[in-house]
Structures are given as C-alpha cells and as structure tokens.
C-alpha cells in the first residue's frame, strides 16, 4: 500500500511540474504576462507559490474531510475563499470540481455494492441539478461581497446542522407514501457489519423533493457541493438508512455538481492553476484519510471540522461585511 501511495505522490508531483511549466511558458508569452498576477492581486508571493501551498492545504483538507465525514467542497470554498487571495468566482468553480472528482471516483463502486440507490437518486438529481444551474448563474451575477456574506451565513448554518443533527442508522418509516410507492423507491442492502440484509422504504417524499430545490440552488451558488445537506434530508426527513443516504448523496454529487460546474467553465471561472493542485491534493489526502480512519475515532475529528468551518464561515461573513479583509 505504501508503494501505491508513493507512486500516486510521484504522479502528483509530475503533474504539478508540468502545470507550472505550462503556465510559465504562457506567462512569458508577451501580452498575457500579467494573467497569473491578476488572479492573486493581493499577494506579494510569486504566482507559483500559491498552487504549491494550495496542494499542501488540500492534502490536509482531504484527510480531515474523510475523518470528519464531510465532502471536500464544503471545506474547500470557505477556507480557500477566506485565506487565499484568489477571486471567489474561481474558488467556487474549483470547489465544484473538487467535490465532483471525489463523487466520480466513488459513485460506480457505491452503485455496484448496492449502497447507492438509483431510484432514490434520479428524481432528487433531476431537481437538484436543474436548480444548481440556476444557483450558479445567480452566484456569478451577484456582487462578491453579497456572495461572501451569504456564504458565511450558510457555512455557519452548516455548523449548526452538524452540531444538532442526530444520525439515525435505521429510521422508522411506518408506511411508504404514495409518491415513493409510485416511483418504486425502496430497496434492500447488505449490512456487512451484521451480515444481514436490510429492507428500507421512504416517506415524506414531496417535502424532501421540495427541500432539494433549495439545496440545489445553494450548491450551485456557493460551489460547496451538497453532501452536507443531502444526507440529513435523505436520512432524517425521508427515512432512508444512514448508509444508503451517505452513499446516494455521494453518487448525487456526480450529477448535480456537473450541471453547476459547466456554468463556471462556460463563464471562464475555472482556473487550471487552482483546480489541478486542489483535486490532486484532495484525492491523495482522501487516500491517506481512509487509512487513518480505521485507527481513529471520527467523533473527535468531527469537532475539528466544526471549529474549522466556524472560523472560516465567520471570516467569510466579516470579509463580506468589509470588517475583516
């Protein structure tokens, strides 16, 4: 396993070197020489230092995200947007691609194991992805300080949800509602820890689908991904088992984030010098995090994530209010 990790790290270093070389050539081409500096106008460091720092930060972020049970996007946007001198539009575009890369890597395996449910995911994905497009367009149209204030308030709301949310392994669903019965949203999955097959069904489907309208708009507007909100709604509101909710949520990101990401790509708000080191750092950190997870109690790290989000959300809010620049 250590050899695989070393190979992955070596590949990351090669990709970063190629990226830096390509941008160096681009920067020395005459009229475009100031492009990297325009992206980091507040920085006194050379432009190539920020992708290197971003890689290290995202590597650590990937470890913490796995241990804390949150998606990479929900940490990436407030932390990078609050403490790095990149424009918030570029940060949000990169945040969506960070969340999307993790979802694309995990989605097929979750479906193959029967953890993610396609019947549950498709109606939710249809609503959330359409609303994510609207949210992305709203986010790009609003002034940066308005988005910063809204982002800060949303992150602080996420902290409150994480503090108050109760995780229910197997919610009690007395009877499936008419809509879920019509859509045949139910299933059976194998619980490896107990060796038993668990049958499940959902209720309050109309209320859950209506909630995903708001979740989709916020996911596209802030570039957070929506795993932080998908799981509580699927699990606590609609009554899907926790593991099914987590797996389906991860699969959902591969659909909803794609829709919003295209809006940022089309508007030129995706910067390779940010996206490449971010994705490589998050994915390598996630590999290490999975190994550490087996030996670490995630409850303690959950509070570390909450403290990080509380600090980053407060900074985003104060930055938007021009109290802390």
- Mean pLDDT figure: 75
Strand percentage, roughly? under 5%
- Largest sheet, order of strands side by side? 1-2
Overall geometry comes to: globular
The sequence of SSEs as H and E is HHHHHHHHEEHHHHH
Largest sheet: 2 strands, antiparallel
Q: Taking Cα atoms only, what radius of gyration do you get, to the nearest Å? A: 20 Å
Number of strands: 2
Structural class: mainly alpha
Please estimate the helix content: over 70%
Low-pLDDT windows of residues: 5-40
What's the number of helices? Answer: 13
Distance between the termini: 43 Å
Number of domains: 1
Characterise this structure.
The radius of gyration is 20 Å and the shape is globular. Helix 3 (49-68) packs antiparallel against helix 4, helix 4 (72-83) packs antiparallel against helix 5 and helix 7 packs antiparallel against helix 13 (298-320). It has 13 helices and two strands; from the N terminus they run H-H-H-H-H-H-H-H-E-E-H-H-H-H-H. It has one domain (52-320). It is mostly helical and 325 residues long. Strand 1 and strand 2 (196-201) form a beta hairpin. A two-stranded antiparallel ribbon has the order 1-2. The termini are far apart. 46% of the residues are buried. The chain has helices spanning 2-27, 35-39, 49-68, 72-83, 88-112, 118-141, 144-164, 178-182, 205-222, 227-237, 242-266, 272-293, 298-320; strands at residues 186-191, 196-201.
List the helices and strands and how they pair.
Elements: H1 2-27, H2 35-39, H3 49-68, H4 72-83, H5 88-112, H6 118-141, H7 144-164, H8 178-182, E1 186-191, E2 196-201, H9 205-222, H10 227-237, H11 242-266, H12 272-293, H13 298-320
Antiparallel strand pairs: 1-2
Helix pairs in contact: 1-12, 3-4, 3-12, 3-13, 4-5, 4-13, 5-11, 5-12, 6-9, 6-11, 7-13, 9-10, 9-11, 10-11
């Amino acid at each position: 396993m250590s050899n695989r990790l070393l190979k992955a790290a070596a590949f990351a270093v090669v990709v970063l070197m190629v990226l830096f070389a390509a941008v160096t050539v681009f920067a020395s081409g005459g009229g475009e020489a100031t492009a990297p500096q325009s992206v980091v106008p507040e920085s006194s460091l050379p432009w190539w230092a920020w992708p290197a720092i971003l890689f290290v930060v995202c590597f650590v972020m990937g470890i913490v995200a796995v241990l804390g049970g949150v998606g990479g996007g929900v940490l990436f946007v407030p932390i990078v947007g609050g403490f790095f001198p990149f424009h918030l539009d570029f940060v949000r575009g990169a945040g969506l691609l960070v969340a999307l890369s993790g979802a694309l890597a995990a989605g097929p395996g979750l479906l193959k194991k029967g953890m993610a449910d396609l019947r549950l995911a498709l109606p939710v994905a249809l609503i959330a992805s359409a609303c994510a497009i609207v949210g992305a367009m709203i986010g790009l149209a609003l002034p940066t300080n308005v988005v910063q204030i809204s982002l800060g308030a949303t992150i602080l709301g996420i902290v409150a949800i994480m503090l108050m949310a109760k995780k229910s392994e197997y919610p009690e669903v007395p009877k499936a509602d008419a809509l879920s019965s019509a859509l045949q949203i139910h299933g059976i999955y194998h619980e490896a820890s107990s060796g038993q097959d668990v049958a499940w069904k959902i209720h309050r489907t109309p209320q859950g689908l209506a909630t995903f309208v708001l979740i989709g708009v916020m996911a596209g507007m802030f570039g957070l991904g929506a795993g932080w909100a998908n799981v509580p709604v699927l699990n606590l509101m609609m009554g899907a088992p926790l593991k099914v909710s987590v797996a389906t949520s991860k699969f959902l990101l591969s659909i909803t984030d794609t829709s919003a990401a295209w809006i940022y790509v089309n508007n030129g708000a995706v910067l390779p010098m940010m996206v490449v080191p971010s994705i490589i750092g998050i994915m390598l950190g996630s590999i290490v995090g999975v190994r550490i997870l087996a030996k670490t109690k995630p409850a303690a790290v959950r509070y570390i994530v909450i403290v990080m989000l509380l600090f980053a959300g407060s900074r985003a809010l104060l930055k938007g209010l021009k109290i802390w620049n």
